[in-house]
Amino acid sequence: MHALHRVLQAFVSPQSFRLALPDVWAGFQVNIKMMFLAEALVLVLALGVAIIRGLPGRSAAPLRGAAIVYTDLFRGTPLILVAFLVGFGLPGLQLRVISTQTTFVYGVAALTLVYTAYVTEVYRAGIESVHPSQSSAARSLGLSYFQALRYVVVPQAVRRVIPPLLNDFIGLQKDTALITVIGVAEAAQQAQNFSNTYYNFTSYVVAAVFFIFLTIPLARFTDHLIAVRERKERAAAI
Amino acid sequence: MSFVEVENVSKSFGDNVVLRNVTLEVAEHEVVCLIGASGSGKSTLLRCINLLEPIDEGRIVVDGDLITNGKVDANAIRREIGIVFQAFNLFPHMTVLQNVTLAPRRVRNLRRGEAEASARELLRRIGLEDKAAEYPDRLSGGQQQRVAIVRALAMQPKLMLLDEITSALDPQLVSEVLNLVRELADFGMTMIIATHEMSFAREVASKVCFLDGGVILEEGDAKDIFSAPSEPRTREFLARIIEAGRL
């Protein structure tokens, strides 16, 4: 009984919950901002990298190579290391503009670098899943390579990859908490400050609750999209 | 002068030689049918004429322009040559009207209203005006293929290539597609048609070419080829077709 009481007191004390709530909420708004900014950048940049990876012809080989090196490097490096490199490394260079940004900007940059690499692969799978006959049909009408991508291939590819894309974004949402390591005053940081001050861990639970409430609707929406897709495909097969 | 001149064209995919020294001439307003077993090179020949496949050797001239020297703008060539595929290849994320107007708008730079008006007129002529706002998966195979033909016609091509366009259709849907092709032939459209529909070929073709192993083994008037083929391979092929009840 005594042990249970201590556990409850340390993790879910109502008093600490109320006390931690305002600061953690203020921090969580920073997470939401980082998340939306990074997601918007990732959506655009990853499509660009995926298209570069698919460019045909020998003259595009260096570009394709650069895109492959980029995705390999940033999918392979843990986000926390990229955050250190960007958040501490770039200011250390003492260059104009790139060394004088806020930690918030460095955080968004680290998230964007890593998740663009993931989402590039998602887009690429989508583009490759569109049957080559679609592109043949478009090209045979006189559309250029890029017009065929723009009007025929990419619209079909994007529709197909929305569920896996949203899954990656669920990961991105949670990983905004890692940006605490470069000193951004986001939810995990605020929770840690509280915990250090009051020697109580309820603040972490508060932060976790915020993340969970943000993730569940997105996860359910993703499930819904997958279910709709499956229903359609089953109907088409009949 | 011929409208299309294919001269000594060869094409391989790796070790697999699909076209060997193919030479073919098509006059303006002429309808040429390519017959032969699957894998004999009919489709590849059409894809080469449309520059969807690069050729290894030989040359192809269309309307006086050498198109296979690698210097031409392939997009400019393709917009003058319509091709229709066995599997329709309509764009599933676009309505019928959007399928038909895409190339006129983006390649010919027609204004939307203009492109839609002429697309509706074409759809009206094939009796599918009421399907303009439907997506392709709501149409029957025959309707989809007719839309695919109209999509190619919307670019006002000088030459139409038809690649086994009825092979994926249920038998009762074949005639509606062939009727449309017949109209095009009557209208004077220059066409090269790869087909397994022998009676149709006999009826519309001014010339029939029998392909075997990537070679045009025999060519001539439809009635000569079908009634008195000179090559044993052609006789063999036609005998099998008759056996299958397709002629």
Task: Note down, in words, how this protein is organized.
The complex is a heterodimer of chains A (238) and B (247). Chain A is flat. Chain A has a domain at 29-185: Orthogonal Bundle (MetI-like fold), CATH 1.10.3720.10. In chain A, 34% of the residues are buried. Chain A is mainly alpha-helical and 238 residues long. Chain A has helices spanning 2-12, 14-53, 61-76, 79-92, 103-129, 132-140, 145-175, 187-198, 202-237. Chain A starts with a helix and ends with a helix. Chain B is of the alpha/beta class. Chain B contains nine helices and ten strands. In chain B, strand 4 (57-62) and strand 5 form a beta hairpin.
Order of helices and strands of chain B: EEEHEEHEHHHEHEHEEHH
CATH topology (level 3) name of the domain at 29-185 in chain A: MetI-like fold
Count of β-strands of chain B: 10
Helical run tally of chain B: 9
The total number of structural domains of chain B is: 2
**What global shape of chain B is seen?**
globular
Q: So what's the oligomer here?
A: heterodimer
Quick one: CATH class of the domain at 29-185 in chain A? Mainly Alpha
> Strand count, sense and closure of the main sheet of chain B?
6 strands, mixed
CATH architecture of the domain at 29-185 in chain A: Orthogonal Bundle
Which class of secondary structure composition applies to the elements of chain A? mainly alpha
Q: What is the helical fraction of chain B, as a range of percent?
A: 25-40%
**Mean of residue pLDDT values of chain A:** 93
In CATH, the architecture of the largest domain in chain B is 3-Layer(aba) Sandwich
| Global morphology of chain A | flat
Strand residue content of chain B: 15-25%
* Low-pLDDT segments of chain A: none
Distance between the termini of chain B: 33 Å
Number of DSSP helical runs of chain A: 9
Q: Mean of the pLDDT scores of chain B? A: 93
- CATH H level of the largest domain in chain B: which superfamily? P-loop containing nucleotide triphosphate hydrolases
